[in-house]
């Protein structure tokens, strides 16, 4: 198993600390275990006559789990990020796609219906709708649930994806199962010497909303959609645990290992603060299997200052025990603050009162006397409990 002996000194120059051999070994063991479990009858003795062994294994997802030492805070947690994989996840030709675009929807419908658009992808896109029509037609909760059940994948233009939570509500955003995936449909701005050309200033010219649309070409839109539906989705939560789907149990171990290595490197480089020094564990697992580790760190802290060495005293900021301080007696007189007795009347300060001058210093408490008082009170309480118990039993 891979480990890190100098994780705290890891730098950005390091590409990866995981061992590809360990990843491949774990992938082989996990896939073999899932296939064996699917072929073995359940312990309860009940057999599902409708279940197909091959389809069950093919649909079993495998997840990569990354645990960090500190929480990951993501400000765009409602927008799942994408990691382009060498082996796409979604290759099912029967899964339906709903494409949510910016206004107007007629332009994007024409793009999907054009001859330049791939035919296999056109069959899967069963609905193209813009934000205006989405708010008008699917305002009711029942309509949103119907839309949610009619499609397996939802894609949304990244220009309007921030407005979808208010339009689609908790039906789509209470979980990450069918949360809309952002796609870039806006045309690329021209660059000169590596810099984007600024937009022309002046009054806006009227344009045809259908003909003059700020959108990419048809081949570029098709390529962007293919990347989105085959990528691994990263939905970060404010915790130390992040899970990403990396493959299926029906895959070859080599394909699964390639996706795992790609996801791990992108996760650490793009989403984990302080990179590998903040990574604690990395596992792969199935829905009902144990987690197989492919990376574990030896150091559970981020900085050496967080560890107290043997014989080292605590810092001055840490809370120390109340040792050597004398406690006040119960009979001690309250302290008198001389400054509180001096009040101003206009510009003339008032003279100190006689009470302040005659105030005596508070005598130091006697610990022996206080211990005797506490012991006497405890003895009295014990007697009262014993008498009450006798009265109840009588």
From TrEMBL:
Residues 311-322, 356-373 have a biased composition (Basic and acidic residues). GO terms for cellular component: ribosome. Transmembrane segments: none annotated. InterPro entries: Ribosomal_uL1-like, Ribosomal_uL1/biogenesis, Ribosomal_uL1_3-a/b-sand. The keyword Amino-acid biosynthesis does not apply. Keywords: Ribonucleoprotein, Ribosomal protein. It comes from the Eukaryota. Residues 192-214, 311-373 are annotated as: Disordered. This is Ribosomal protein L1p/L10e family-domain-containing protein. It comes from Apodospora peruviana. The lineage of its organism: Eukaryota, Fungi, Dikarya, Ascomycota, Pezizomycotina.
């Amino acid at each position: 198993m891979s480990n890190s002996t100098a994780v705290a000194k890891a730098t950005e120059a390091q590409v990866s600390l995981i061992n590809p051999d360990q990843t491949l070994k774990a992938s082989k063991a996990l896939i073999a275990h899932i296939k064996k479990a699917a072929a073995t009858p359940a312990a309860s003795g009940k057999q599902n006559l409708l279940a197909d062994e091959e389809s069950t294994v093919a649909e079993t997802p495998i997840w990569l789990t990354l645990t960090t030492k500190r929480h990951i805070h993501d400000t765009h947690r409602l927008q799942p990020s994408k990691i382009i994989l060498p082996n796409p996840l979604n290759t099912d030709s029967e899964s339906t796609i709903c494409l949510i675009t910016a206004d107007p929807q007629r332009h994007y419908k024409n793009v999907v219906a054009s001859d330049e658009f791939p035919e296999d992808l056109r069959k899967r896109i069963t609905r193209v709708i813009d934000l205006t029509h989405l708010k008008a037609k699917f305002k009711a909760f029942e309509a949103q649930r119907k839309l949610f059940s009619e499609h397996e994948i939802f894609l949304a233009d990244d220009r309007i994806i921030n407005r979808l939570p208010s339009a689609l509500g908790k039906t789509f955003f209470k979980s990450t199962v069918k949360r809309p995936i952002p796609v870039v449909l806006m045309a690329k701005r021209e660059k000169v010497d590596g810099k984007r050309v600024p937009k022309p200033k002046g009054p806006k010219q009227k344009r045809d909303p259908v003909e003059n649309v700020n959108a990419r070409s048809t081949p570029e839109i098709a390529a962007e959609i293919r990347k989105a539906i085959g990528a691994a989705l990263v939905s970060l939560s404010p915790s130390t645990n992040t899970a990403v789907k990396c493959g299926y149990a029906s895959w070859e171990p080599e394909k699964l290992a390639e996706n795992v290595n790609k996801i791990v490197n992108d996760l650490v480089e793009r989403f984990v603060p302080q990179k590998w020094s903040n990574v604690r564990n990395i596992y792969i697992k199935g829905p009902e299997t144990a987690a197989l580790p492919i990376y574990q760190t030896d150091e559970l802290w981020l900085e050496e200052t967080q560890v107290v060495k043997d014989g080292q005293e605590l810092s001055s900021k840490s809370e120390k025990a109340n040792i050597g301080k004398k406690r006040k007696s119960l009979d001690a007189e309250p302290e008198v603050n001389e400054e509180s007795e001096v009040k101003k009347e206009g510009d003339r300060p008032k003279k100190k009162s006689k009470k302040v001058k005659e105030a005596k210093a508070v005598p130091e408490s006697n610990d022996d006397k206080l211990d005797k008082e506490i012991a006497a009170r405890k003895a009295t309480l014990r007697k009262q409990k014993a008498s009450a118990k006798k009265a109840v039993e009588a």
